[in-house]
């Protein structure tokens, strides 16, 4: 009497391995894209918070605070008798270098590689601010983030995907 053994053929095993490998590669690629999106959002939120803090500092100190933007980074400065000086004594307002893939633009203008001598944005001691739009992007296929700064110093964070036509609010104003 012959006993039939059941098992998998070599072809069935190879097909299963290929399917698992394809699914794993798709998962790895989707996780990588999500990391870039989260880094960009975190940088936009951090810049929004720092602008709010800079405007509060200007109002409390009675001195204007400026924001210098360059492609790939930003820095805050304070008005002194001899001109604008970068703020180095406050950790929240020190110079920031953004991740390599992240780019800034202000009011739809491309920024230079070096910090300008004069700030592009000002928080006044009166509590007012220069209206401005700052945009962060990390490549042509990534979500874009935008910080709208109003005359009263309030900021609104917005985002837009590559297929979206309108900017969507990402949270309440600060």
Give descriptors for this structure.
six-stranded antiparallel beta sheet; single chain; 1 helix; minor pseudopilin epsh fold; alpha+beta; 28% strand; 174 residues; five-stranded antiparallel beta sheet
Low-confidence stretches: none
Mean pLDDT over all positions: 85
In helices, the fraction of residues equals 25-40%
Radius of gyration: 24 Å
Q: What is the number of strand segments?
A: 11
CATH second-level architecture: 3-Layer(bab) Sandwich
Secondary-structure element string: HEEEEEEEEEEE
Question: Any idea how many domains?
Answer: 1
Look at the structure and give the CATH class.
Answer: Alpha Beta
Could you say which overall geometry the principal axes of the C-alpha atoms support?
elongated
The fold-level CATH name is minor pseudopilin epsh fold
End-to-end distance, in Å? 82 Å
- Strand proportion, as a percent range, falls in 25-35%
SS-based class: alpha+beta
Count up the helices: 1
Could you characterize the architecture of this molecule?
It is a single chain. The protein is of the alpha+beta class and 174 residues long. It has a single domain, classed as 3-Layer(bab) Sandwich (minor pseudopilin epsh fold), CATH 3.55.40. 30% of the residues lie in helices and 28% in strands. It has one helix spanning 10-61, and strands at 65-70, 73-80, 83-86, 96-97, 103-106, 109-110, 121-123, 132-137, 144-149, 155-160, 168-169. The chain has a six-stranded antiparallel beta sheet, covered by helices on one side. Strands 1, 2, 3, 4 and 7 form a five-stranded antiparallel beta sheet that branches. The longest helix has 52 residues, at 10-61. It is elongated and about 100 Å long. It starts with 9 loop residues before the first helix and ends in a 5-residue tail after the last strand. The mean pLDDT is 85.
